[in-house]
Amino acid sequence: MPRPEKVRAIEDIKGYFSASPSAFLTEFRGLPVEAQQELRRNLREAGTRYRVLKMTLTKRALHDLGHHDLDEWLTGPIAVAFVEQDPVIAAKALVDFSQSHDGLVIKAGMLGGRAIGADQIKKLATLDSREVLLSKLAGTMKGPLSRGALLMGSFTRSAASMFSQLADRKEEQ
């Protein structure tokens, strides 16, 4: 029979995964405390919580949630970045930090309920943020609308000019 504190820890971990639309698994061997604090600060600014978790309890919680596809990456000391906002910003923060600190290894992640590998997380980090992508889309959609409005405006300007010229000719006669 499992001990109550372990059952509670598994429930907490399940809650973290359920509340986050995406999560990234990392290994943090040999990171000094100052570097860990810097990483947590960077991730907090990116709307992400970083938790050090026990591997066996995490594996059990993920199995309870029906995620068996992360088992191969659940080895060694595990820390999970639970993304609460934009996963692109969190992926960028992790990738940038891992490039300057060898002690942080990005292992895998979950995005939209699917397991993704470290290479996909690195590709995700190269994308623009959600806000930038939305503004690019809005700009792309605005172009044809603006041209259409200018075209419609030119009809009324041309018609007004034509009527003005006709009125001038009538006055001359």
Structural class: alpha+beta
- Helix amount, in percent? 55-70%
Per the principal axes of the C-alpha atoms, what is the gross shape?
elongated
Supply the number of helical segments: 6
Give the topology string: H per helix, E per strand: HEHEHEHEEHH
Assembly context of the chains = single chain
- Low-pLDDT runs of 5+ residues are none
What's the average pLDDT? 84
Biggest sheet statistics: 5 strands, antiparallel
- From the N-terminal CA to the C-terminal CA, the straight-line distance is 108 Å
**Number of E-state strands:** 5
Strands of the largest sheet, in order across it? 2-3-1-4-5
Task: Describe the overall structure.
- This protein is an alpha+beta fold.
- It is 60% helix and 17% strand.
- The chain has helices at 4-19, 33-45, 55-64, 87-100, 118-125, 130-172; strands spanning 22-27, 48-53, 78-83, 105-111, 114-117.
- It has a 5-stranded antiparallel sheet with strand order 2-3-1-4-5, with helices on both faces.
- A hairpin with a 2-residue loop joins strand 4 and strand 5 (114-117).
- Helix 1 (4-19) crosses helix 3 (55-64).
- The longest helix is centred in the C-terminal third of the chain and has 43 residues, at 130-172.
- It is elongated.
- It starts with a helix and ends with a helix.
- The model has no long low-confidence stretch (mean pLDDT 84).
